[in-house]
Design brief:
Elements lengths: L1 H19 L11 H7 L7 E4 L2 E5 L3 H9 L7
Antiparallel strand pairs: 1-2
Length: about 80
Amino acid sequence: MKFLMTTVALTTLAASPAFAAPTKHLTHRMTADQAYAAYPVQDPDAVVVNGQLVGRDPDANVRLSLRRDPRLQAN
């Protein structure tokens, strides 16, 4: 009986890494251009409206005013 329990325990320990192995997923490899486009460097002081830079200012109130300016919004 002791031999059987030892065998079961060793078999379980040997098989556990196989169950813990991560599943295989399809990976998507990006080119350097795609990687830079996916993670753009953003200027915290820049205001971008409709994809165009309309201004830069360190003051949050000025940036909010630039974003809300109706003359800069798309028609």
